[in-house]
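Lab notebook, bench 4. Still working through the backlog of constructs that have no structural model yet. Next entry is a single chain of 272 residues. Request: give me the structure tokens for it.
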Amino acid sequence: MDDFLERNRASWDDRAPAHAASPDYAFDKFVADPGFLSGVVRFDRPLLGDISGLRGIHLQCHIGTDTVSLSRLGARMTGLDFSAVSLAQARRLASRCGADVTFVESDVYDAVTAVAGEKFDLVFTGIGALCWLPDIRRWAEVVASLLTPGGRLFLREGHPMLWALDEDQEGLTVGYPYFERPEPIVDDSNETYVETEASFTHNVTHSWNHGLGETVTALLDQGLQVVGLVEHDSVPWDALPGRMQRLPDGEFRLREQPWRLACSYTLQAIKP
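Model written out:
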């Protein structure tokens, strides 16, 4: 196994139980309310449209809250992730909710083999996923291989401009790569992005940025037709602490002059 994959998986294995226990992922609300949806999927719904009856796969599904939410909207969902600990939490959530969701353990680059060549009407990738992949072109190949003709990719992701920002005493600077680079961004942090008092031992992670044009071009080169691209001034977590405000829908955007920064984007593409 590649060193980056082993390190990243250990980090997610370490954090998955804390994420599942955190109020930010709201497991208890999912169980108590059969109509409850994750904040990510609630935000996505106007662009996602009607997915009832579709066969869908959620790549890099983590602990399954978005996957269960898509199932509640009527799709027949498979969730795929490389972290066995994350999938254990996802299966527990689905079981408690009575959701008919299949979960598969696999690195996203091996997804086609992991699902035995099955084809899907919908490939969904939620926010905060692509940055853990070193090669956006390989990801696009996987997406194209998973889609049935007429099937749709739905991707909402952190904007590469947001990922490129660094914070210092003077404000925000462009301190990290905007474009994909062979060398990873190596981080060593014992924190996570949810409310928790848990402590962690696996803290070194490797990540990569992918420019918006690189992502679009990778999909086009696989023969997909891009049918939608919307940039948003918000993300579903406090990405720049001290500089963002929480909105009524749970999203965060810059407190001052939010029009300065695209924080996320939604991209949709169809396989002819």
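Notes after review: The longest strand covers residues 147-158. Residues 3-270 form a domain with the Rossmann fold fold (CATH 3.40.50.150). Flag for follow-up if needed.
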